[in-house]
Amino acid sequence: MKLHIFIVNVFMLIGMLQAAPVRPFADETLFTEAIQAKNADEFFMRFGYMKNITTRTRHVNKAVKRKEAIRKFQQFNGMNITGELDEETIEKIKQPRCGVADFNESSRDRPLQFNAPGYKWSRKTITWKVTGYTNQIPNATQRSAFKSALKKWSDVTPLIFENTEGYPDIEILFARGNHGDGSHNAFDGPGRVLAHAFYPTDGDTHFDDDETWIFRSGTGTDLEVVAAHEFGHALGLGHSQNTESLMAPFYKRMDIGWKLHQDDITGIQSLYGVPEDQLSAPLPSPSNTSSGINNKLIYNIRYIITAIIVYRYILEMLIML
């Protein structure tokens, strides 16, 4: 009898569970939002929008700090400032970008369009060397990409870049994951962080070998564009809030023959000045039009002086009569 009652109860329980409405969506949504919030916090702390929350600062309201960080991120990247982790913001966070922080201790909350934190080389000749190549592109092509990327900066400054076999100012290498310069600088596989560089007087520049690298054509990430951005850091520039600038933090594909944005030029020249040939350039000679005007003015002055002298001579003659 007891066994019979037990079996009946079991079947009733199963029936109740089957009949009960299943509502996983709300819980899954909350779970997804929690994961997104956690990932967003890690992103904002890594790239300088929110201070690291440690055991000493656990009492801080993370939701408030996150909202402030989101607004700061949206403002810096020219987005609608909502303070919410909306779809546009999440998609922006997911985009490939540089691994250098957008803000650091020396940055202002409202940076200039270009950002020069104050680091620079004290000499105009800077050496570079590739110590770790990728297998995705021929070595000679990689060197061409780096040489072309450096030329973007030497064209608008007095700087001279020399490839060396000795110990370089800028050491260039490809790596994966944690590659020896701190866990916070570890690469994260395909997507998100593409590369990073150190400010002077270090200058070392690293590229994530898990990315698909190309040079100017093909499907993948253009090494020349990313290298030029990272070399901007290696020369002393931070990230710009001008989204059209090369020094904006997120990667964008460039057309063949692209040039630095004026924002980039203004930034780098604030550190190193203009090319020397622009300093020694002769003053432009007067145009033919201005020369003609000057000659006509001189002729008119001479004519007036001559007329005055003649008029005075005639007047004196009449008085004598």
The count of domains is 3
Derived from helix and strand composition plus strand pairing, the structural class reads alpha/beta
Shape assignment: globular
The strand count comes to 8
Measured distance between first and last alpha carbons: 163 Å
> Which CATH architecture of the largest domain is right?
3-Layer(aba) Sandwich
Helix content: 40-55%
**By CATH's scheme, which homologous superfamily of the largest domain applies?**
Collagenase (Catalytic Domain)
User: Which H/E pattern describes the elements?
Assistant: HHHHEEHEEEEEEHHHH
Our Rg estimate from Cα atoms comes to: 33 Å
Number of discrete helical segments: 9
Low-confidence stretches: 16-26, 106-112, 286-293
State the CATH topology of the largest domain. Answer: Collagenase (Catalytic Domain)
Largest beta sheet: strand ordering: 1-5-6-4-2-3
Overview of the structural elements:
- Helices cover 44% and strands 10% of the residues.
- It has 321 residues and is α/β, with parallel strands linked by helices.
- The chain has three domains: 26-94, Muramoyl-pentapeptide Carboxypeptidase, domain 1; 125-277, Collagenase (Catalytic Domain); 285-321.
- The strands form two sheets. The chain has a six-stranded mixed sheet, with helices on one face.
- Helix 5 crosses helix 6.
